[in-house]
Structures are given as structure tokens and as C-alpha cells.
TrEMBL record:
InterPro entries for this protein: AKR, NAD(P)_OxRdtase_dom_sf, NADP_OxRdtase_dom
Protein name, per record: Aldo/keto reductase
Species of the source: Halomarina halobia
Transmembrane segments: none
SUPFAM superfamilies with a match to the protein in the record: NAD(P)-linked oxidoreductase (SSF51430)
Domain NADP-dependent oxidoreductase: 33-208
UniProt signal peptide: none
Coiled-coil intervals: none
Pfam families in UniProt: Aldo_ket_red
Top-level taxon of origin: Archaea
Amino acid sequence: MATKNGTWAYRDAFDGFARTYFRRFGDGVVSSVGLGTYLGDPTDAVDESYHDTTVRALESGINVVDTAINYRAQRSERVVGRALADADVDREAVLLATKGGFVPFDHGRPADPAAYVREQYVDRGIVDPDDLARGIHCIAPGFLDDQLDRSLSNLDVDTIDLYYVHNPETQLEENSREAVYDRLEEAFTLLENRAAAGDVRHYGVATWQCFRVPPDHDAYLSLAEVVNRARAASDAAGTAATHLRAIQLPFNVHMADAFTVEAHESVEGRQSALRFAHEAGLNVFTSASLGQGELAREGAIPDAVDAKLAGETPAQRAINFARSAPGVTCSLVGMSDPDHLEENLAAGTFEPMGARAFDRTFE
């Protein structure tokens, strides 16, 4: 697993990045550009491209790799595991993150997805049909326990550094908000126990909508309540302190709600997701940093914002916008192309905007 000494030694091996490129994560440090593995077809060719890109990324200054068991029908996890073994980098230098929640296929999409879920998960007692949302999503402890074991095997590691409960707002489509909080607490209790056993070091919540929409939105979940449920889970598991460490959410120049929408109650009143997370001691990892490639196009970033961003290409400036947001630890970028890796990695050689300059982009 990632360690203090391993990550600091990794940082010290590179001297071409800007001062704030590496940022604190617990007692260690991580790169503020991370490699994502969501996009791409479940094919051997894409596997090889991800493998080669991930190896180069790890050897070039990116020590955050983000995946999920359902990405590319478990193939992304397996490729990440292979790349981690092949890269000339110490395992203790790398923050490895994955997720569980969506029922994954295996190797490729089956001809009858519903039949696959029924035969592989429901009939085997891994999933109770009452716990499924939309027929594809489950955060029940028994299911996450199974998924965590599969992820450890896919990645071929003893410990996962950061294990996310994946898009819990999916459960809101068929359950009350209170019921979803209860399910999250049960999931967190399972993860507290797995953390005590050494299978995960930290856990978090990876989301799409729930933390960046107003409280009256159907997909809303309160960060304050999520933190409270993690504390209750820690008490139930008997751990000394909660292992809840991070959240993941989309953030880019066109999706800045995590900074602009004050949706989460605190002692100081309502706060944005980014501010609340920072004050609660949670690290923030941003997804969709390039808007699935849209922001890499000339003219996609508004001129007034683009002029304030450092970087030679639109992609670099878009990444640096996400890295500039107060409280952001790491901005994830999907990368399966070595050429894109070089361009995206070079964003870290430029300083992001300071807090005041970032604030002024919203005036």
C-alpha cells in the first residue's frame, strides 16, 4: 500500500514539476494529476494501450491511479494491476483507488445483461433483489464484501489504498434519502471492518451528482450526514477513528457546481462541497477534468477564463483549472494514449491559479 516514506521518496525523484504539483494525502503526498481508466471498449487493444500508458505514467510522475471494478467489464482493474507490477516503481509510492457499487460484467458485455446479473449474483446469493437499484446498482455490505475481494484479486494487491462507494445517488431512484443514508452507514461499517483487517487503508464516496446539487434536488445527499454516518460506522466497527478519507466528484470549467453551489450545512451555514470537504478533512479527487475530451478542443474554455490559465494547450489549461480549485487534491484524467499522457502530465509543470485568481473567474 501507499506509505509516507514511499510517496515522499517518489516525489523527491522528480524535479521538473511546479511547486504545488504534489499535494498532501494523509501523511504522504500524491500527484495532483491522476490517471483515470473509465473510457474505452473492453478489447485487448485498449488493454495494451492502458497498460503501456499506465506504466509510463507511474514512471514519469503520476502516482495516483483510479479505476473501478465495473470499468470495461473488470478489464481496467486487471490492466492496472499488471501495469503496477511491471512499472519500475515501488508499490508503496502509488495511491491505488477503485470503486464498488455497480454490478460488473466480466471481460465483456453479455448478450443478456439482466440474465447475467440474475445468474451470477442473485441466484448465488451475493445480491438480494431488494437491494438492487435500476437492476444494476447495490451497496449492501454482502455485495461490497464480494466486490472488494474481487478487486483485490483483479489488482493483485494485498491492500487497496482508497476504496470508494460508487455513485450512491443511484439508490435514490428507488429508495428514500433516509434509507440511502442507512445503506451507506451499513456499507461504511463493512469498510471500517475491512480497513481494520488491512484490506483497505481508506474509503470514500465517488459521485456524479449528489454533492454538487442543491438540497431540494432528487439526487442530493448531504456531506454532513455522510460524515456523521461514517462516524457511526466507526463506532459500530470499533475502530479508533473513521477511515473515511475522500470524495470524488466531477469538476471542470463547465461543471463547477462543487465550488459554486452552497448545499451542505455546517456550523458556519451552508457551504459548497469543496469547502465543506476541506474543513471536514476530506481529500477531493475530481473527475471529468477534461469533460471527456471536450475541453481539450480550442475555444471550449471561455476566453476570459482561458486567459488566466497557464499551459501550452487547451487540455493543460483545463487540467490546471481543475487543479486550481481550493481543496482539490488531485484531478483525474482518462488516459489510454501515451501521447495524451505526455501532454496531460506537462500540465503539472505549470503553477495553477492562486485562490484569489480562481475566485475572480466567477465574478
